[in-house]
Specification:
The chain is α+β, with helices and mostly antiparallel strands. It is built from 5 helices and 4 strands. The longest helix is centred in the middle third of the chain and has 24 residues.
């Protein structure tokens, strides 16, 4: 049973952003500082990936663990209203898989960064280094910026 009124729940849900979240901004800041240029929320691609590096045909997805049903502590499913949340989250997962397949068919690579990886500075740094290695494997050469 929801402890909030319908209006209260609506207000809470309206505060949940889907674009330009803190994790997205951190990833974009990292890429930009290393000289990579990218587009955000590319509407012309399936699923509108969060960050797109067109030169390398790489789509970067920054997934919230709850909304994309990641199997981690952050992504725990709610114990109430399971008849709503179960199918809702599974539709999200199914849509994610479909969008990534479509991108692969168009010749794009996918890279996912999970919210739980971002919450841990060590895991986040490791995941960002993995992203950079992925870009380099696709022909990316890191631009050395002044003094860095």
């Amino acid at each position: 049973m929801d402890h909030l009124t319908k209006a209260g729940r609506s207000k809470v849900m309206s505060c949940i952003r889907s674009q330009n979240t803190r994790p997205e901004l951190e990833v974009r800041k990292y890429l930009h500082a290393r000289g990579y240029r990218f587009r955000i929320h590319a509407k012309h691609l399936p699923g509108k990936p969060d960050v797109v590096l067109p030169k390398y045909r790489l789509a970067v997805w920054i997934h919230g663990c709850f909304w994309h049903a990641h199997r981690c502590k952050v992504g725990e499913r709610p114990s109430s209203n399971t008849e709503y949340w179960g199918p809702k989250l599974m539709r999200n997962v199914s849509r994610d898989v479909s969008n990534k397949r479509k991108l692969n068919k168009l010749g794009w690579n996918n890279f996912v960064i999970w919210e739980c990886q971002i919450l841990s500075p060590t895991k986040f740094a490791r995941r960002l280094r993995t992203l950079e290695r992925k870009i380099e494997s696709l022909g990316g050469v890191r631009v050395k910026l002044c003094g860095k």
